[in-house]
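Continuing the series of single-chain predictions for the mutant panel. This is the parent chain; the variants come on the following pages.
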Amino acid sequence: MSQAEKDALEARLRAQIEAYHEAALVYAAVQLGLADKMEARRWTGEGLATALGLSAAHLARFLRGLCIIGVCEESSDGSFALTPFGRSLTSGSPLANKVHIVIEQYWLPWANLIATLPAGRPAFDQVFGMSVFDWRREHAAQGAMFAAYLAKETQADTEAILAALDVSETDKVVEIVGAHAAFLAEIPSGADLYLLKGVLQNYADDDAAVILKHCRAAMAEGARLVVAERLLPARAMDDPAAVMLDLHMMTITGGRARTVAEFEALLPQAGLALMKIVPTTSGLALMEANTEKR
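Parent structure:
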């Protein structure tokens, strides 16, 4: 590696380390409801400070920081307005919800990622004293926010899944998304297709096998199970997003992304056989399994 390449790599890593500045600025803007308050008009720092009950001098400095990261723009007369990106941070928007989730639920566990490494216990559990699933149940507002964000993510993937999945002879579909319903022992029976999207990745193998057994118990002979998840590659750089997802699950839920071989080993534990894998344009893989003979 040349010195120029080393310098470029170091500069990129330094920028990534310092990205906490930007995350903190955006989180503060969302907490203030800045996008809702500023709307489509221009504000002086003093006027906006009065409206928000804040120090004008400190708010002006904060707004200039938001200009640097593209949330606001500053005019020659010193007034401020939201950019199109800034307007996407209105209360309840998917982006604003993600900001809340990342800072309030993920920031501290990721900062303590090292705590996961000695024994594999999720850093989230060690930081908050309970699992992420229990925490979201106890903090209903944050749990509902996560569920709403997950629903949007699922909707965004729907087109890619439907384009890759053959449902021409399918009358009834049961879909389970994320982790919130994963341990339902009474999964509806009688469906032709059971779709698990982003479920198994939340759990270690023993719990994932239990979920699959619930599905198998609900499935009639000839029914299909499709697991929609990102596959873990043989080499990290083949799919960096899958590797980061794997680390996120390790840190937050105790789950994991899996390789094809790991799915091939997991499915038979529930009497299921992997039949085929279909890629999608969203990066998810659709792993279709049929029931093995009892």
